[in-house]
Amino acid sequence: MVSSDYFVAHSAKLIAQRRSFQKALHAWYRVHQRPLPWRLAPSLYKTVVSEFMLQQTQVKTVLPYFDRWLHALPDFIALAAASESQVMKLWEGLGYYSRARNLHKLAQQIAAQPKPPRTPAEWRELPGIGPYTAAAITSIAFAEPAAVVDGNVVRILARLAGEGRLFRDGTAAVKYFTPLADALVIASQPGEHNQAMMELGATVCVRQNPLCSSCPVAGFCQAHSHGQPEKFPRLQPKLIEQRAVTRLWCEFGDRLLLRRGHAQAKRLAGLYELPEATDLQCPTPSAKLLIAVKRRAITRYQITESIYRLTLTPALNKKIKAQADLEWIPFDRLPSITLSGPHKKWIEEQRKK
Ligand code: SF4
């Protein structure tokens, strides 16, 4: 792998060539950008909603949610006045629900001000806004010269400059590449520059098999000229932790037992899920009662969830009554409550059997 001196030299070369780099990138973006709904007739509100939805989430997943959201809540005033349950219902299935709660609070703060804040530093005072989102929103909506730096941008910069050092994690890599990203931003068109970088990372300079032969900045790229772009950036492999969870399917008459996330819970506040065996201090039920096994990954956890059918007994009923967060929900009320995404799917699957 190449040395840091090599990176410094090639970063300096890239910065010296930044006018022609930007020209090539922007010319490509104007022709090849995808016609995404937040780019057509753009507004501050559309930019903010799309940036929240796109955190940790792919564009194709976001598209139907974005349309539904804009239809129901077309501006900051409408969002500020919406109930929390309406906001959560519109977000249902998109995951990382703290984003929806923060977006709701942010709209209430913006609606209460005579005009929205403009600088990245002012935006970072608002709920749910980190450096990336502040730079994205203010560069696109207010032409603030702030560079966005996320995994996509890190990948492009590491390849362009041929940086071969090993990073502890994505956060360390973002910090390292931010000065180079800032140096490449065009002061007159920061929003277009940032969107072009994001688009390049999403559609051309992808993780596996980057499309170097159709890349507009291939002529500036060290990794391409050495023929090994996929080796960059180098990140320490994540330690994956296995977790096993025992879930319960307990129905009585026309109702299903669900657990409602505590209001202060970080991830699942207000969301319904199938209860865990530990909620009712149950031992793992007999294997004969196993009705489904589901696997999913959340951050560094690989989770295996085993769902067991449980029959209601007087002793169990007593335990349920003692737990304020356990609720019997009629099946016909399920569409009106907000379930976490996987649980909504699992319950639908189970009911179809
Ligand atoms: S030439 Fe290839 S590796 Fe280099 S920036 Fe373009 S797509 Fe990425």
The domain tally reads 2
The CATH class designation of the largest domain is Mainly Alpha
Q: Summarize the amount of helix as a percent range.
A: 40-55%
- The CATH homologous superfamily of the largest domain is termed Hypothetical protein, domain 2
| CATH fold category name of the largest domain | Endonuclease III, domain 1
- Characterize the main sheet: 4 strands, antiparallel
Architecture (CATH level 2) name of the largest domain = Orthogonal Bundle
- Helix tally equals 15
Q: What compounds sit in this structure?
A: iron/sulfur cluster
Unreliable stretches, pLDDT < 50, 5 or more residues? none
Number of strands: 9
Structural class: alpha/beta
- Beta-strand content estimate: 5-15%
Rg calculated over all Cα atoms = 24 Å
- H and E order: HHHHHHHHHHEHHHEEEEEEEHEH
Rounded mean pLDDT is: 92
State the end-to-end CA separation.
54 Å
> How does the overall form come out from the CA principal axes?
globular
List keywords for this structure.
353 residues, Endonuclease III, domain 1, Nucleoside Triphosphate Pyrophosphohydrolase, 4-stranded antiparallel β-sheet, 3-stranded mixed β-sheet, 15 helices, 9 strands, globular, binds iron/sulfur cluster
